[in-house]
Amino acid sequence: MKNHLTVAALGIALIATPAFAQAPTPPMITVSGEGTVSVPPDLALVDGGVTSEAKTAREASEANNAAMAKVLAALKGAGIDDKDLQTSRLSLMPQYAQQNRQNGGPNVITGYRASNRVTVRVRDVKKVAATIDTLVTSGANEVGGINFVVTKASELLDDARNQAVADARRKAELYAKAAGVTLGAPISISEEGANAPPAPMMLRKAAADFASAPVAQGEETLRVNVSVSWEIKAKQ
């Protein structure tokens, strides 16, 4: 009886096996394609602030707070909304006598340095130079850099996506012709990358040098890469 049950179970297993078998992978060709589109940025991020030094921590903080208040008031007076002003760094650090440190002597505090930096979102990129001018003339003694940004990159990338798929098809047809096969329908399409590389413009000199500096926004290049697999068939 036991042998009959074993044979019956084996028969059921053999019958059920094809139901779980995977379909064979069809012959295919996989290639990548790239598409780009150049667009002007519609947002600029300007980094600037005030650094103050004094004998005591309190004096440095108070001087810095007063100076930064003037800068913020000037920016708001120039039309920058509160929502477009964000503190990016706030610090208060002691300053030491360099001679003692170089000679291996004890650390002697000679004063304190307070710093307050803010990131300004400029939604009209034509006003970047004017914003820098406002920063500097209102008392900012640090301007760290400018980042131009494309805010609607995903929508603008649609043209680049079409280009990327067309580029992949062109390559696939070339390879299929060289291999003596016919290109069939696409089996899979995946987007490997879609990006707008940042375009920082760093301002390293004294802030006063940039009070009337010309600023060129240029264009950003948005890029998409796709991987597409096509079924291939033997030529009839």
Keywords:
single chain, 236 residues, alpha+beta, five-stranded antiparallel β-sheet, three-stranded antiparallel β-sheet, elongated
Topology at a glance:
Elements: H1 2-20, E1 28-39, E2 43-54, H2 57-77, E3 85-96, H3 98-102, E4 109-122, H4 128-137, E5 142-149, H5 153-179, E6 181-195, E7 199-202, E8 220-234
Antiparallel strand pairs: 1-8, 2-4, 2-5, 3-4, 5-7, 6-8
Structure report:
The two termini are 57 Å apart. It is elongated and about 90 Å long. It is built from five helices and eight strands. The chain has helices at residues 2-20, 57-77, 98-102, 128-137, 153-179; strands at residues 28-39, 43-54, 85-96, 109-122, 142-149, 181-195, 199-202, 220-234. 35% of the residues lie in helices and 39% in strands. α2 packs antiparallel against α4 (128-137). With 236 residues, the chain is α+β, with helices and mostly antiparallel strands. The strands form two sheets. The chain has a five-stranded antiparallel sheet. Strands 1-8-6 form a three-stranded antiparallel sheet.
